[in-house]
């Protein structure tokens, strides 16, 4: 029978061993500065300092504990990193100098990459649309970016803002066309190569055994 664990960091308070990802902590720890993850003493200073923690589904302290526990799916599906305002208060006050903000960025990147970023949450939609635009055109067209953001999150607001958008466009303040670089194929070759390298690095990271630093 599968072994069952009880963790205070688990959303339901319990989890089967088979549902955890033992390589997740090593994967996050391999980002620059990420290895400090294992020094966390769960003091909670980060959560106390974080101005957004009351709005988060998991506080920063809990996210660190969940990463170390292998709760990959819960961390990557969480809203926490999308609410993070990158204010660095947590990292500055952490007694173990853990780069919590960088860890938040790492989980965001992984969530986008694995297609599990919240589908209609404005921050994650904006990040995804920006990324898609730069990836396909080499540029981000602000007027289109704003339109896509509203259409994917709150189309009724898009209708209300249409008048203002048209005024800004008529005054030349925003463009509505798609801007693009000339040699898109070269950019896509570079991005495909980087994707391949990242895939190989990600597989290698999962093979590194986790070492707890406590
Ligand atoms: S402040 Fe640092 S050591 Fe304390 S819980 Fe947060 S990450 Fe861990
Ligand atoms: S950097 Fe993010 S997680 Fe850290 S205190 Fe600021 S908002 Fe909270």
Task: Catalogue the ligands.
Answer: iron/sulfur cluster
How many runs of DSSP E, i.e. beta strands? 2
On the 0 to 100 scale, the average pLDDT is 84
Quaternary structure classification = single chain
Shape: globular
Helix content: 40-55%
**How is the main sheet built?**
2 strands, antiparallel
Order of helices and strands: EEHHHHHHHHHHH
Strand numbers in spatial order across the main sheet: 1-2
Rounded to an integer, what's the Rg over CA atoms?
A: 20 Å
Q: Low-confidence segments, ≥5 residues, pLDDT <50?
A: 1-6, 210-214
Give a written overview of the molecule.
By secondary structure, the protein is mainly alpha-helical. It has 11 helices and 2 strands; from the N terminus they run E-E-H-H-H-H-H-H-H-H-H-H-H. Strands 1-2 form a two-stranded antiparallel sheet. Helix 9 packs antiparallel against helix 10. The longest helix has 24 residues, at about 185-205. The chain is globular, with a radius of gyration of 20 Å. The model is unreliable at about 1-5 and about 210-214 (pLDDT under 50).
